[in-house]
Amino acid sequence: MAAFLIPSYLLSTALYGLLFTSIYLLLATGLTLIFGTLKLVNFAHGDLMVLGAFIAFLFVTLEGWSPYLAMIPAVLVIAGFGVLIYRFTLKPAARTSPVNMILITIGVSYVLENGLAYYFLPVYRTGVEIPSPLRGTGILLPGKVLLTYDDLSIILISWAIMVALYYWLFRTNQGIAIRALSQNPVGASISGIDASRLGYLTFIVGSALAAIAGTLYGIAFTFDPFTGILLTLMAFAVMILGGVGSIPGTMVGSAIIGFAESFISYYMGETWGEAIAFIILALILLVRPSGIFRGG
Amino acid sequence: MSLLEVSGVTKRFGGLIALNGVDLAVGRGELVGVIGPNGAGKTTLVNVVTGVYYPESGRIIFDGHDITKTPPHRRARLGISRTYQVPRPFNNLNVLDNVALAAMYGSRRISVRGARELAMDLLGRVRLAERAQDYPESLSVVELRKLELARALAQGSKLVFLDEVSAGLVGDDLREVLSVVKDIHEGGVTMVMIEHVMKVIFNLTERIIVMMNGQKLAEGKPSEVASDARVVESYLGRRWSEI
Amino acid sequence: MSMSAGAGKRLKLPGSTYIKAIAVAVALAIITAVSRMWGSYPTLIAMTIMVFYVYSLSWSLLANTGMVSLGQALFFALGAYAYGIFVVSYGVNPWLALFAGPAVGALAGLAVGFVSSKLRDWYIGIFTFALTPAGYALAVSSQLSPWTAGAVGLTLPAFPLSLGARLALSSALAFAAYLVILLIKNRRIGFALSAINDDETAAGTIGINSRLYKTMIFGISGYMAALAGAMFVALYTSYVAPDYFGYPDLEYSVWPVFYSMIGGMGYPEGVLIGTVLLDPLQNWIRSSLSSTSVVGGNLALVIFGLLLIVVLLRAPKGIYGSVARYMETRRARQAR
Fold this sequence. Notes:
The complex is a heterotrimer of chains A (296), B (243) and C (336). Chain A is mainly alpha-helical and 296 residues long. Chain A has a single domain (7-124, 137-287), classed as ABC transporter involved in vitamin B12 uptake, BtuC (Orthogonal Bundle), CATH 1.10.3470.10. Chain A is built from eleven helices and two strands, in the order ααααββααααααα. In chain A, strands 1-2 form a two-stranded antiparallel sheet. The radius of gyration of chain A is 19 Å and the shape is globular. By secondary structure, chain C is mostly helical. Chain C has helices at residues 17-38, 40-63, 73-88, 94-100, 103-116, 121-140, 145-148, 163-186, 188-198, 200-205, 210-237, 251-263, 268-290, 296-314, 318-335, and strands at 154-155, 239-240. In chain C, helix 1 (17-38) packs antiparallel against helix 2 (40-63), helix 2 packs parallel to helix 8 (163-186) and helix 2 (40-63) runs antiparallel to helix 11 (210-237). The radius of gyration of chain C is 20 Å and the shape is globular. Residues 1-14 of chain C have low confidence and may be disordered. Classes of the chains: A mainly alpha (296), B alpha/beta (243), C mainly alpha (336). The interface between A and C is large, with 47 and 45 residues.
């Protein structure tokens, strides 16, 4: 037991927690934006993230780009891809019953995962990481804990993007229109907001966030074609924990899930680390189906 | 003793007080009218009595049972039924089975076969028998209202709430539905009719309650209520024949 | 839940409930006989059809009550593990274990149903989904490995029946599962489930206790899914693996979804059509592609995923529902 309490272990586990938190935050914010605005439960969200990570991976390994630069083509491709998926499956799906809508997104997820696996597995066999030139370098913290420059960049980029997103949602006309749409679709359309155009915009932003989260995830951790569904679930756990549509709630939710995952993984093994998010989620649904940070 | 006794019921939605200390007593065999402008709390009153919402305070006694915290399905079994302002038929079931289902549950709880026989009977009573095998989506507004009436009756209720049974109906359709309501009431069913306008129930009922902003504004015989200065005021000075 | 012909189904093939039941019995008997005469590989495929028919029925029972389970493999795996642990660790008679093991699934179903009955549509999907990693984690955990054999999986003794008799048993169980669904559909409870699926509030105000029914249905569904799991390992694989929990790969949770939705989830006969068409197809694509590539199975799943999307968007009532609609319009045209 004593080894568990060694400060340097605590510190490095906490650093992992912060990494998870930052990445889940981006991912869950995209999910909650799409759900809040389009009322679309997208089970393929994590798969878009993994696809983004894979595109960045290709640009880094085949073209020799820096992973942080490779984020740009990843975002562009996934945003475009997101538009296609939205136009041809999810948008028509939203008009059918909730049951159908959920199952269609499950279908999309399945196609993406196995499509990626079909291309990916023969070449790479197991999970991959996006190689970074900064690997192994960093700032030495007390207790010989290395805060790598990669970790630092991931955390800084995540939070910078959150700040930019917050500014966009609360200070620009587009963002305000999107929030209006999520709060009152009828009222928004009466006041002349083009709901269809904003729908696409929301999906693009959500997918772009997934692609960024994916690239950052790929730099820090290994991923394979089937990581996506796990990440979707993590994002749902965060969303439900934080209350659908609330950005501060999403931050708190990401922190709870991120730190729980890193500490439980460390003490009980990775399988339980992954499972803990879902155990928390199940407990939340048991006690308060609308999420704990949701007022009223 | 009254069949239904609502006392001091308050229901809030966030900051909005939909019902504010409302009292309502309904005697056996009565037909009571409740009117009021939009947002007066009429439908909330129905929802609170049928258990769709629970009130923050106050008590609801039905047939000697305190049902303030009782879930909706148990209230239905005790003998409360309702219609919806916007009809809510079960679209997967045909008209006959919509009514039969209410007979299977409600306060009767009979077998499928018995329920279908009873349902056919009731569809005859509301003059909808010829549509028994059709699905609700093909029904007109007036037919949907009749379906809801038959469904409420099939439950074997002691008390039926009609939530704006006249909404969207004019002329012959309105007369048709109101005559069905009258028949049902004369058959011995206690009723509360929620209406937006008074003239619909003016000749049907002995007692009208006027609601305004979640409170009871006036109560009395139709003619008394119609000449009540506050009521006229609440309808923004419209002539009583219009309300 | 949509009603059968006798109970006034909106889209119906000609014929009463009895005729359909006989047709299903005959279809199952033909599959059993033909595959048995054909050889031992087709016999095994036929056995998976029976197992996955029971499993898909368990899923569609929930879906027809408005509850989408995305973690149905939880019950499937619980049934498989319960059977395996009963037989291996406690020396229970395999016959007893085959029917008693799934009781674990029923209990889990009641517990999951109790929580789910409070939740609205997609929350149920997430909730059920979220339970599968926990099941997986338990199965591979070192604390339980004396019983579960951890990630290695549990190897089971052979079931005391010949291959042909095992197939006959599984088709009998498949028919029994169909009869249970039929029984539910044509009774009071079937009407109530249909109403709950349609409008829960209105169902409440006519006296239907939707929480009770939803919990109960989850219990029944849990038993059926667990029975499918127990059948799968007892009669077919003789092996229990942690990935039966549908985690990390969803596979075991999505097969019943594919088969039910593509076949026609509102109709137990449609689910049979879906299973009979897709299960062998799935096996065939997998085996014919895996000889050329390690990822043949993945391609099969891509095809199934696309098929599911197209069906859901173009023919939400599945194959059976579309055929029924076609025949309905043709009959209407002839009547004119």
